[in-house]
Amino acid sequence: MLRASGDEAYNEWIYNLSIASGAKLNSVRTILTKDKKASEESEVLSLIRSAEAIFFAGGDQSQYIDYWSGTEVQSILQAKLSNVTIGGTSAGCAILGNWVYTGEKGSATSDEALANPFDKYITIVPAFLNIPYLETIITDTHFGKCYYILVYLL
């Protein structure tokens, strides 16, 4: 579990989900990076290198882009795409598309965005990760009342 805010609350839920699905995980670990400097820590890099699956929590996708873009974290994650499951919810899903709505300057409502696609609050940056099959996709889990989880499976 990678995140830039929050706690380890997902750990037990994901572990129990793995048991219920019949694919029991060895362990679940949350890696919390609160700034770009944390993305350079050897323990963080080691944990990501050894991860057998990666899940990005919700939160603030602009922090993910700010803290991880251009770092070893991004390089390791890109390399892992060919042999691990990668997924995310909310902000964690938002960073998986070919373009990322960062929300770094605030949010525009759907009505505002449709009326003016150049609204100052609409900030879109190129892909954080280059994921096959998502080359034409902007991800978002907040278009409806239900939240969906996007998972890229091998």
Can you describe this structure?
With 154 residues, the protein is of the alpha/beta class. It has one domain (2-152). It is built from six helices and seven strands; from the N terminus they run βαβαβααβαβαββ. The chain has helices spanning 10-21, 42-50, 61-68, 72-80, 91-94, 110-115, and strands at residues 2-3, 31-32, 53-56, 85-89, 99-101, 124-126, 149-152. The strands form three sheets. A three-stranded mixed sheet has the order 3-4-7. Strands 1-2 form a two-stranded parallel ribbon. Strand 1 (2-3), helix 1 (10-21) and strand 2 (31-32) form a beta-alpha-beta unit. Helix 2 runs parallel beside helix 4. The longest helix has 12 residues, at 10-21.
Residue share in helices?
25-40%
Number of domains: 1
The separation of the N and C termini measures 18 Å
pLDDT averaged over residues = 87
Supply Rg. 16 Å
What's the number of helices? 6
Overall 3D shape: globular
Task: Give the assembly state of these chains.
Answer: single chain
Q: What is the structural class?
A: alpha/beta
User: What proportion strand?
Assistant: 5-15%
Question: Which terms would index this structure?
Answer:
disordered C terminus, 31% helix, 6 helices, globular, alpha/beta, 15% strand, 154 residues, 3-stranded mixed β-sheet
Short description:
By secondary structure, the protein is of the alpha/beta class.
